[in-house]
């Protein structure tokens, strides 16, 4: 388990991180969200002891330091592959840095390459690979030693939907094996799909920290998706509707003043008739991000 306790980082008089506290349990995933410059990468650098800081970072009850380096898998925002190395040489290099032997790496690497659909690229030089395939090699290099603490800075950057799903599968497999995982992302759908907890950073402050469902529920079920033959003008005449967004033909997203008005609006729109869709839900994580970040 990773415990961040009163972590503060200043650059001169500027607070990059101000009294940050949270935990990442074993077999769980925490998603870090926030605008560029909110403090996410700085937090990663502090956890990894790449920056000095005030406060404490505990791993399984002890201060996290150099002795834990082989338990950590880190994917930096700025990728660091050696262009003249082959895929096999590159992953062996990083694996050896993490204490693995070449023989065992040569057994494990084909399994990882096959999982990411780049087995045929084993002998190719890094510089000949597409950006997406280079990203896969970097990810394999991060995970090859089966770390217990995984830190991924924008891991989905540069991946198409198919390859993003391959990465999600690998992250979830690591979770099932007991890893504590943190990753940052600007795609709220990725965060909502696989994270157990979410931490929203704003200007170095931890503004929100909880499960995805509890964060969403805290904003109330003030969003309604409805299919109706009523026109926008007719919908505007219904009390307590603040905003109307047309999604498609005869389908709308309504923002209401308070979730308590949902039943009244349902009764008005249906007027005793069947309608295909009437879903009342809390705002999406993306909508909360837009409001709070």
Shape: globular
CATH topology of the largest domain: Rossmann fold
Q: What structural class do the secondary elements suggest?
A: alpha/beta
List the uncertain runs: none
Major sheet details: 6 strands, mixed
Mean pLDDT: 94
> How many E strands?
14
Q: Give the radius of gyration.
A: 23 Å
Q: What would CATH call the homologous superfamily of the largest domain?
A: P-loop containing nucleotide triphosphate hydrolases
What number of structural domains do the residues give?
2
Assembly state: single chain
> What portion of residues belong to β-strands?
25-35%
CATH class of the largest domain, named Alpha Beta
Can you put this structure into words, describing what you see?
There is one protein chain. By secondary structure, the protein is α/β, with parallel strands linked by helices. It has ten helices and 14 strands. Helix content is 33%, strand content 29%. The mean pLDDT is 94. The longest helix is centred in the middle third of the chain and has 16 residues, at 161-176. It folds into two domains: 2-217, Rossmann fold; 219-292, Alpha-Beta Plaits, CATH 3.30.70. The chain has a six-stranded mixed beta sheet with strand order 6-7-8-3-9-10, with helices on both faces. It has helices at residues 40-47, 87-97, 102-115, 131-143, 161-176, 188-194, 212-217, 232-236, 262-270, 285-292; strands spanning 2-11, 14-24, 28-33, 54-59, 62-63, 72-75, 149-153, 180-184, 197-202, 205-211, 223-227, 241-248, 251-256, 278-281. It comes from Liquorilactobacillus ghanensis DSM 18630. GO terms for molecular function: ATP binding; ATP hydrolysis activity.
